[in-house]
Design a protein that fits this description.
This protein is an alpha/beta fold. The mean pLDDT is about 95. It folds into two domains: about 120 residues, D-Maltodextrin-Binding Protein, domain 2 (3-Layer(aba) Sandwich), CATH 3.40.190; about 100 residues, Periplasmic binding protein-like II (D-Maltodextrin-Binding Protein, domain 2). It is built from eleven helices and twelve strands. The strands form three sheets. The chain has a five-stranded mixed β-sheet with strand order 1-2-11-3-12, with helices on one face. The two termini are about 30 Å apart.
Length: about 240
């Protein structure tokens, strides 16, 4: 069996994620002894051995929704955001005075992946509301790499998953001070927990809820985990898929 919680598994959070998985496994009564790390997420997401994984909203609606079972959506208690939803901060260097229109026309947008809701689909939708589109882009393969690209001036702006920015920033206050979150995108359903198609999702969801409740306050705080929400599948599928797909 495979259990993977890799979407926010930053180095300083690995121990907390390990404790979360042990709590889930204890509540569930079975499962692998340890989280899978370093594997191909697409292979894991589509594996019949998947017990618990987490994907992004865009891969889920574009390719996975009819291949996996939706377990639930974590509530990360984000500021001014509905439970079970998230958004992206548009960030730039603090010493860069350009607004979004100027950045889109002359700057470089760093983005993690073309199948990322928060790093690609969300900023494109946000910019389209203002009749804007990025003129230059730089693919970085990870949100944290997009942040680094801005800090070292290989790119000028990016849309970063709000939770990623908060979790990363909690561990690097000096770097955060160099950035400006100058706009935010509309909320969309957060990154869903999934399991292999045909597996009973109810006991897994119950185990996750109980595990979150049983976690030490410090771990819940560090992971920003408040609970598990049942966001309807239709809410994920209702969002548009960027024209590149």
């Amino acid at each position: 069996m495979i259990a993977s919680l890799g979407m926010y598994d930053m180095a300083h959070l690995k121990n907390a994620h390990d404790r979360l998985w042990r709590a889930i496994r204890s509540e569930l009564g079975f499962g692998p002894n340890a989280l899978t790390r370093g594997g191909d997420p697409w292979e894991e997401w589509q594996s019949s051995d998947l017990l618990l994984g987490q994907t992004c909203g865009l891969p889920y609606r574009a390719r996975l929704h009819d291949q996996v079972a939706l377990v639930g959506t974590p509530d990360y208690d984000l500021p001014d955001c509905p439970a079970g939803y998230y958004f992206s901060y548009l960030i730039r260097r603090r010493d860069d005075p350009r607004d979004l229109a100027e950045l889109s026309a002359r700057g470089t947008l760093a983005y993690n992946e073309p199948l990322s809701q928060s790093g690609w689909a969300a900023p494109l939708a946000h910019m389209a509301q203002h009749n804007l589109r990025p003129i230059r882009t730089l693919q970085t393969h990870a949100h944290v790499a997009s942040i680094s690209a801005i800090l070292d001036k290989r790119a000028d702006y990016a849309a970063i998953d709000a939770l990623t920015l908060l979790l990363w920033g909690a561990n690097d206050a000096d770097a955060v001070a160099l950035l400006d979150a100058f706009e935010r995108t509309d909320p969309t359903p957060a990154l869903p927990f999934i399991t292999a198609q045909g597996r009973d999702t109810a006991p897994i969801a119950t185990a996750i809820k109980r595990a979150i409740t049983s976690l030490a306050h410090e771990d819940r705080h560090d992971l920003r985990l408040k609970g598990l929400i049942q966001v309807p599948k239709a809410d994920y599928l209702a969002l548009p898929i960027p024209s590149a797909f």
